Each structure stands twice: as C-alpha cells, then as structure tokens.
Amino acid sequence: MMPSPTKADDSSLDAPASPVRVLVVDDSRAQRRILTMQLERWGYLVTEAESGEAALEFCRSEKFDIVLSDWVMTGMTGLEFCQAFRALPHESYGYFILLTSKSEKAEVADGLENGADDFLSKPVNSDELRARLRAGQRIVSMQNELIFKNQLVSTTLGQIQKLYDSLDRDLIEARKLQQSLVRDRYIDFGLGKAWLMIQPSGHVGGDLAGSFIIDERRIALFSVDVSGHGVASAMMTARLAGLLSSGAPDQNIALTLTSEGARDAFPPDEVATRLNRMMLEDVQVEQYFTLAYAEIDLISGELHLVQAGHPHPLILRRTGAVDRLGNGGMPIGLIPGADYQTVSSVLLPGDRLFLVSDGVTECPGPTGDLGEEGLAKILRGSAGLQGNELLESLMWDLSDHTGGQDFPDDVSCLLFEYTGPV
Question: Coiled-coil segments, which residues (predicted)?
Fold first, then answer.
C-alpha cells in the first residue's frame, strides 16, 4: 500500500498543471525571497523585481499571469505600478494582488479603483496567499479561455466573410448570366412590339419572361415565376429559358414539325402539360413554377393562352377598358396529370397584352397587396404612355405602393402592343 502524503509534501498536489508565471515586486530583498521560495515550492514560475520601475520594464517585454506587489515602495508605489501595468497593451489579463498593511476601506477602494484585483495584509499568511493565488488562477484561466474563444470567433468570422465575398462575386456573375437569358428587352415583330422588364429581389431570381417566333405569322409570349428565391430558382429559370428558346428551336418544348416539315407549335394547354410532365418525371425536384403562355397570330390578332397558377393576363384595350384572361389553373410541377385549358381572345390594333408575375400583383403596401384590380387601375391611369415608358411608370407606381421599400419578391412584366396589318 502506498503511504499517505505527509504535510511536508502535500503542497505538490496543488501545483499548477502548467507553470503559472508570477512577478513578485518588493523593494525589500528579504520579503521577495520569502515569497519566492513559497511560490516556487508550490510550482509557480517566479520573477523578482526590486522596484515598480524595474517591474514595469519586465512587464513591457514579458507576460505574467499574476503580480504580487508591495504597496509602499521607494520611487514608484505599488498603486502607481498597478496603474501603469493596466495601461500596457497586453492582450491577456494579469491578476494583480497588492500586499499592504493598509486596512482602511477608503484605501482599499482606491486600490480597486486603480486596477488591483485583490489585497493581502502583511505579514502574509501562507494559507491565505495560496487561496488568493488559486482564485487568481481561476480568473486568469477563464480570461485566457475567453480570449481564445474570441480569437476563434474572429478567425471563423473572417473565414465566413471570405466565403461570403466569394459567393457574392459568384452571385454577381450569376446575375449577369441570368440577365443574358433575356437577350432582348425590346422586340419588333413587325405587326406588334414587345417590351420586357425583370427586377430580381436579390442577386438572382426566379422570374423569366420572353418570346419566340413560331412561324411567319405566329409568335409565342411567356411569363414564368419559379417557386422560391436564390440560386436554385435561378438555375431552374436557366433551364426553362433553354426549353422556350428562340435561338434553339429544335430544343424548344413548345415547337414541333408538321408532316410537311414546316415549323408548328403545340397548343398552349399542351405546352403546359408537356412542361408539367417534364417537371414531375424528368427534373424531379421540389420546385414548381407558374406560367402564362400566349400564342398570337400577328395577321388576325387571334390570341390563345394558358394560365397555370400565374396572375391573370390583362388586355388594356385601346378604348381604355381592361379585360382579364385565363381560368387560373394549377402551377407546373405539382400534380401529375393536371388539366390545363386554352382560352382565346382577339387583339385589335392598339390593344396591349400584359403578362406579370405575382411580384407585381402581390406587391405589399400599407393598405395590403396591390392585387389585379390595383394593377388594372394603374394600367388605366397610364394608358397614354407607350412601351418602355409604361413599364417604367408601373415600377414607380409599385414603389409608391410599398412606401419606397424594396420589393420583397422578384418583379417581372411582359408588355405586347399589337399594331396589326397596315
């Protein structure tokens, strides 16, 4: 059986796991030596200084965890040294204990006010000294841990900032690429003209609007709003832009060929059905999108349109009346076998067709969302404006409706003005 520790050697059990650096400051060499021998026996790494000035020089170049300083010394007093010690630009904390025969409360308060952490009365009691040192170690240890964690947080935040900056640059480039999907903001079809306006609520968005030519007399117009925001929605709009592209007709999901090899198009309801099937069977993602897709005969003005969960397309007649088109319909990519219906109308010369995303109709304001009635009112009030001026006026009206706040959702609009045969 191992013998029990004796009183002579139990101090070794309390030795710090790693050496704690202690600075002993006293102008009495005998007092310094007494304190130093005790501290070294307890496992502390001790440095002696014979004056406050000498101690301050040590502290400028070295780090001490605990300082034991006599209050009354020739030259710089312990209190003055404490003030100077606290003013040094050290990142880590040093626990400062003043050794004094002073016991008046006002003097003790003065010491605490000037940076001292604790006091020990002279002559110093060994057990009390050890207890005060342990208390100092705990505080220094907690302070060092806090500093380490702050450094860790600072380093992590710096890394996060670098990642954010990199992502921000990527998103800026992604926005440029997404904007390039809508190559022409103004298109002249001869017997009609189209203007596009898209404003994402973030770097990139889920709105898409565009057109393509079917044949020598027919064109198609579309407006898409993909669910959600950000990169995933933007990637889906990029795919849909390819599927409804005028630059790659052989990949356009709406186009087909007649038995004679001439270009033709599926009816609008079939286009919606094909897109719905593609989303559910091929793409298989959690996203869905709403769609307004219109086929227009530029000679006759005949309009055939499908609405799939999108806001109702509006026709601003040359007379000032506003007609609402569509039957609502289910969004694309939600329900297998969803039924879509084509609705028809006729455009007369001077009539204008509007396809807008719900970022317009659901634009919030102090009195509630704008709504389709609010949009119709704005269009009637701006009926005298043409083309891009009308779209810019619409944006100003939306901004007024929000009270000047940023739009919370992507905003897009396609305006088609029918001029008809001369």
Answer: none
Rounded to the nearest 5°, which phi and psi values hold at 263?
A: -75, 140
Q: Is 9 helix (H, G, I), strand (E, B) or coil?
A: coil
Query: How is residue 180 written in tokens?
Result: 């390039």
* Residue 311: pLDDT band with limits 50, 70, 90: very high
CATH of the domain at 124: 3.40.50.2300
Tracing tokens 């050794």 back to the chain, one arrives at 99
- List, for residues 182-207, the tens digit of each pLDDT value: 556 789 999 999 999 888 776 666 78
Show the tokens assigned to 17: 């796991």
Paired residues of 218 in beta bridges: 297
* DSSP classification of residue 185: S
Distances from the Cα of 278 to the Cαs of 210, 240, 242, 251, 381, in angstroms? 20, 11, 13, 13, 41
Whichever domain contains 203, its CATH number is: 3.60.40.10
Give 3-state DSSP helix, strand, coil % of the chain, rounded to 5.
Answer: 40, 25, 35
The 10s digit of each residue's pLDDT in 66-76 is: 999 999 898 99
How many structural domains comprise the chain? Answer: 2
CA dihedral (135, 136, 139, 144) positive or negative: negative
Residues 6+ positions from 276 with CB-CB distance below 8 Å: 308, 332, 333, 335, 336, 338, 340
Looking at 65-218, list the stretches that DSSP marks H as alpha helix, in order from N- to C-terminal side: 78-87, 105-113, 126-181
Give the distance from CA 79 to its chain's centroid. 50
The answer to the question of residue 161 being in a domain is no
pLDDT-derived band of residue 109, with 50, 70 and 90 as boundaries? confident
Handedness of CA 333, 254, 179, 195 (dihedral sign): negative
DSSP string for 259-325: TTS-EEE--HHHHHHHHHHIIIIII--S--EEEEEEEEETTT-EEEEEEEBSPPPEEE-TTS-EEE-
Q: Are 24 and 36 in contact (CB under 8 A)?
A: yes
Q: In terms of domains, do 217 and 334 share one?
A: yes
pLDDT at 17 > cutoff 60: no
Same domain, 52 and 194: no
Contact (Cβ atoms closer than 8 angstroms) between residue 43 and residue 9: no
Q: The domain containing residue 373 runs over which residues? A: 182-418
Residue 36 parent element (H or E): helix 29-41
DSSP assignment of 369-420 equals --HHHHHHHHHHHTTT--HHHHHHHHHHHHHHHHTSPPPSS-EEEEEEEE--
Rounded Cα–Cα distance for residues 206 and 276 (Å): 17
